[in-house]
Write a structure and sequence with these properties.
Glutaredoxin; 3 domains; 28 helices; Rossmann fold; alpha/beta; five-stranded mixed beta sheet
């Protein structure tokens, strides 16, 4: 090994690689830190400063890792080729040195050189440790390990290819070709299960990412170890064949035997039950949260995830055979805590939710079966294995999903849950949605009942004024149906079912009958929760609902005249309450408003109701009053008329009433506006107004279910949220990393090479 190291450092190539590498490290890091500091000073929030600099999309280690293929082939090209071309290989063969010792000596020298490269690459982490708030040092160490083990794997590949030719240029080109093949082979034959497993394991692409993210995974670690073992073994076999002048077929058989052993060990080490993990990040960002882990621990029997993909719908591409390995990774964090999860894929054809391709005239009159035959006739996919939608419905009734890709989670005890993909930028379910689905397998879903029969807002109406987007819109990630709720519509003509957790009553356009009020009051008396959303001109119909809590909807409509918006827009201030959640209080402290259009005020009645009442949303105390005359706010301006009883003061627009019933909390939330949770208002974007109606809706749901849903997985933010270097430090940073360190390497190179020449 010492001899090989001397050969390395008596060669200008090794020094040139080190010099260019060091300069690239310095230039990249200085640019990253300067840009990050500039964005911070522009007011952008910082999340995970260490990861941004080191392992993010443009992080230092990521960029250097992506360039390794340029350096390592140049480093390894002469390891054995030089021995062949100079004839010194005969001296090695005649010496008392085994083939293994020859190979391992040369390989150890590349490992030492790789350590030097990693050391140079890690020098900027000293600056990160000094000038990043609470830097994630363990994550950087694991990321450096990932880069180093990749260098070792590339070196083993380069060493082997150096043993098969005496020409260094051929060795370089061969190494580049093999690295390219190993990077792209993961895309080969993905349509076939058997080929997919082989090529997926062989692929080196993305193997280092888990280390860069701060995670040590035995599957990836053993992959690199096995790749190193494979190519070193083949190098020894090649030397043995050359030394003993063995027939080529014997050498090839030895190659095949080693490959079979390595591949078998690789497949075995990739089984979920054999994989071990160590998450080195400060906040365990690569691991399920404790909440999700607790849910998974409750699933003690078998769990199967069946993915139904309609080959005619545009969502099919997310789970088609060639995308299966990528799709399987979405549940890897859950496999860590339940390795026996079974994952199945069922491909079928049927009515589709959306696909613009089939709007052409040539497809209009075709049945789903005919469409499949027409579209996939030139593909390599075996369409005979595709089921019809009727066959799928017999397995799991997913007809309500409209043909979109959907997953059914099934426990051996018979409980099932639906997991969807969504029409947003992220598309796939996050940990929150997956854990919600898992939770409904071990706990019951929350059941909100939307009251109907008097023109109330419908949970199925996706229009501007309906609540469908919040409740039942399947492709909306945050809809109740995707967050652990099982919403339904009911009439108060019949007693409210015992499994209903809370009522949602809004914008009641006609009075309730005595029977309906009796059923409603019975629900309240047994401790049921309710969200009651009023509306101007509906006060008479809705006051019987809120009077038992000592509240009433005031007549007429609230106005807050201004120059920018309609007079009936109320921008409400939010007040914390012990009845509401801590996050509700946090939003209140941050001054996040709620907006209401056409709202009525909520007043207290001078009665003892038995409920504790808190006002949680209030208007400003100036410029707001109850308007008694003006109604056309688009064409008229409101004017304060004290003579008409109009009083300028602070009004309540949302209250919460609470009490204890049968050992549990009962919560009633009353608001003066039904539009505040309509799609029209949720999507409103007003200049200078920071409102979060959607977040307040989630807070209301959280209170209605006494903290059960929507779930809060509770992942802590990373503490490294600030870059602390001043502008005076940046020139010194640039000098040290861009010029001083490369300069030291250059001077060292000159000294070593000049001294050697003089000798």
């Amino acid at each position: 090994m010492k001899t090989e190291l001397k050969v390395f450092f008596f060669s200008p190539i090794a020094w040139l690689i080190l010099l260019v590498f060091a300069f690239q490290v310095g230039t990249t890091f200085c640019g990253l830190y300067t840009d990050a500091l500039r964005y911070q000073e522009m007011g952008y929030p910082v999340y995970g400063a260490t990861a941004n600099l080191i392992s993010g999309l443009r992080g230092l280690f990521v960029q250097m890792l992506n360039n390794l293929y340029l350096y390592i082939p140049l480093l390894t090209m002469g390891l054995m080729s030089r021995e062949y071309s100079s004839g010194s290989i005969k001296l090695l063969y005649s010496s008392p040195v085994s083939n293994f010792q020859i190979i391992i000596g040369k390989y150890l020298s590349t490992m030492v050189y790789g350590l030097i490269l990693v050391f140079v690459m890690c020098l900027p982490t000293v600056f990160v440790g000094m000038y990043v708030q609470s830097p994630d040092m363990k994550m950087m160490m694991v990321a450096a390990l990932g880069v180093y083990i990749t260098i070792c794997a590339y070196s083993a590949i380069g060493l082997f290819l150096s043993t098969i030719t005496r020409y260094q240029v051929v060795a370089v080109i061969s190494t580049l070709i093999v690295l390219a093949v190993l990077n792209f082979i993961g895309n080969v034959g993905q349509e076939y299960d058997f080929v997919r497993d082989i090529t997926f394991w062989l692929s080196i692409s993305g193997r280092s990412k888990v280390f860069l993210d701060g995670m040590i995974c035995t599957r990836e670690l053993l992959y690199f170890v096995l790749v190193i073992f494979l190519f070193l073994s083949m190098s020894v076999i090649k030397l043995r064949g050359h030394r003993l002048k063995l027939p080529v077929w014997k050498t090839v058989l030895d190659y095949a035997a080693v490959f079979v052993v390595v591949f078998g060990l690789g497949i075995l080490s990739s089984r979920p039950k054999f994989i071990k993990y160590y998450d080195a990040t400060q906040v365990k960002s690569n691991t399920l949260t404790e909440y999700s882990q607790e849910i998974m621990s409750k699933i003690t029997d078998g769990l199967t995830i069946t993915t139904y993909a309609n080959v005619l719908d545009e969502t099919w591409f997310y789970a088609e055979p060639r995308s299966k390995n990528t799709d399987l990774k979405r549940f890897e964090k859950y496999l860590r805590f339940k390795p026996d999860i079974k994952q199945k894929y069922v491909y079928y054809y049927g009515d589709f939710y959306s696909n613009y391709r089939y709007e052409r005239d040539e497809y209009k009159d075709k049945t789903p079966h005919d469409l499949v035959q027409a579209i996939y006739r030139w593909s390599r996919q075996d369409t005979t294995t595709y089921l019809s939608q009727e066959q799928v419905w017999a397995m799991d009734d997913i007809r309500a999903e409209g043909g979109r890709l959907v997953r059914v989670l099934s426990r051996d005890n018979g409980r099932k849950a639906i997991l969807r993909i969504y029409d947003d930028s992220h598309i796939h379910p996050s940990e929150t949605e997956i854990t919600v689905a898992m939770k409904t397998l071990v706990d019951r879903s929350a059941v909100p009942a939307f009251v109907t029969g008097h023109g109330e807002r419908s949970m199925s109406d996706n229009g501007d004024n309906g609540y469908g987007l919040l409740a039942t819109h399947r492709v909306a990630r945050h809809a109740l149906i995707n967050q652990g709720f099982a919403p339904r519509e009911i009439s108060l003509e019949k007693p409210i079912p015992i499994d209903v957790d809370f009522l949602v009553i809004s914008d009641v356009k006609s009075p309730f009958s005595e029977r309906e009020l009796k059923n409603y009051n019975a629900f309240i008396e047994r401790g049921g929760n309710a969200l009651i959303l009023g509306e101007p001109r509906r006060q008479k119909n809705m006051n019987p609902l809120v009077e038992p809590f000592g509240l009433k909807f005031a007549d007429n409509i609230l106005v807050s005249p201004n120059d920018l918006f309609a007079d009936d827009l109320i921008i409400a201030n939010v007040r914390a309450s012990e009845t509401m959640s801590p996050s509700f209080a946090a939003m209140s402290e941050r001054g996040i408003k709620a907006t209401m259009t056409s709202a009525c005020a909520i007043e207290r009645l001078p009665v003892e109701s038995g409920f504790h009442v808190d006002d949680i949303m209030l208007t400003d105390d100036k410029g707001v009053w109850i308007e008694t005359k003006t109604r056309d706010f688009a064409n008229e301006k409101s004017v304060l008329n004290p003579s008409d009883g109009e009083v300028e003061k602070q009004y309540t627009v949302a209250s919460v009433a609470s009490r204890r019933v049968k050992g549990k909390d009962q919560i009633i939330i009353v608001t003066g506006d039904s539009d505040m949770f309509s799609p029209k208002e949720l999507n409103a974007n007003r200049a200078g107004v920071t409102a979060a109606n959607f977040d307040y809706f989630n807070e209301f749901m959280y209170s209605m279910t006494l903290g059960e849903y929507p779930i809060n997985i509770g992942r802590e933010p990373s503490p490294d949220t600030r870059y602390t270097a001043s502008h005076e430090v940046l020139p010194w940073m640039a000098f040290i990393y861009k010029w001083l360190i490369p300069g030291i390497i250059l001077i060292s190179c000159m000294v070593v090479l000049i001294r050697r020449k003089r000798r």
